[in-house]
Amino acid sequence: MLDxxxxxxxxxxxxxxxxxxxxxxxxxxxxxxxxxxxxxxxRCREQYRVxxxxxxxxxxxxxxxxxxxxxxxxxxxxxxxxxVAHEMGNLRGVVSVTxxxxxxxxEWGDPATLTRATDFNLAxxxxxxxxxxxxxxxxxxxxxxxxxxxxxxxxxxxxFHSWVSAGIAVRDVVTGEPIAGLNLSCWRNRLPPSAxxxxxxxxxxxQRALKRRARDSGAELVAAYTQAGARSAAPLAAVDTAGKAVxxxxxxxxLMGVPAATPAIDATLRWTPGLPELITAARxxxxxxxxxxxxxxxxxxxxxxxxxxxxxxFRPVFSSAHLIGHLVSFGVAEGAQLPPSDAPxxxxxxxxxxRDNRMVLLGLPEVSLAESDGNDxxxxxxxxxxxxxxxxxxxxxxxxxxxxxxxxxxRYVVNLGRVQEIERGPKGELSxxxxxxxxxxxPVSRRNAxxxxxxxxx
Length: 458
Description:
Keywords: DNA-binding
Radius of gyration: 23 Å
Mean pLDDT: 85
Strand content: 25-35%
Shape: globular
Number of domains: 3
Domain HTH LytTR-type: 351-458
Strand order of the largest sheet: 13-12-16-15-14-18-17
GO molecular function: DNA binding; phosphorelay response regulator activity
Largest sheet: 7 strands, antiparallel
Number of strands: 21
Protein name: LytTR family transcriptional regulator DNA-binding domain-containing protein
Low-confidence stretches: 1-12
């Protein structure tokens, strides 16, 4: 739930403004600032380089960058936003719907506040992502999980310090990536205590429908995989439109670094291949197949346990005219050639952790493991246990895939260079004893055990 007491007029407002002034000048200590805000400020200053003296949001980039299936989400959120517009009008507030890029698609509420909002470009077809407009309710919600309230001086841009904004993202239930955002904004006025509950409830109803569709699409991909496997001896896998594995045979699972054969009981659960090139190719294949349903394509990538690139082909799978994923065949080259993925993968040089009101910059060798705990990610490091700046373990796993880190369990990503001991249980299960890790050994899930054995040569 949102903390409705943290507003532009709250007693802590002056302390937050003082911390903001110091942080803008280059200091790293942020006393009195909530972790979600401190981490956002760090992204704005170090990663996005947003001018804290920006006076209005920029115009959003043109073009359609979402699939037609997401139009249903926008329509659902628009309906829910319009239904609360009268209540927000009584609070002299506005309610907005954005896409995944922070572009406002629609806005409703108090006419006077809507007029004032145009002075800041808080209006349709302007961009309020963090990388465009700094810390704000809708932009920061797209980077974090759950409802996010940004009050007064918590906004990165000083021109927005008179606003209070609360946002929440609708996320793809498979990839975890944002699809859309819902936001409430007031000018120099408090949001009601019920704001957080209303946002969370609106998104939960929308995501239930997304989960049903994801479960159905997973089952259809498994069916397509089964039919194709009966006709071909080539190593085969089924991936969704984002490149995540739904099911793979024994050989394909080794090449991809994912569990083999049996899909999860919940078809919304997917596995991220340890092959960034495959993920990039799958997403490009999705773009091609969306434009041309008859498209089939191939490329060459490096796979696990191979010294030379391997040919892979993508054959799209559709359900009710909507693309739901691809069948990936290894050692097969057919159809159009995808562009080669020769660009070197950018590896993070350091991670950001948070201890109380201070951000800690960590070299990768200092990090023993990352652990998911609810909506938070924690780092076990040579400098103690720290909250990670990354909003999800999946995102951190993708960032560290080529940096000597490995996903060993749904809750753990470990630094292979910090594994000190390997324990075997009575039934052959594995656990890892980590340097600077938690007191207990880190469990290795049955599905991830083959990849761990290969990585550690055991």
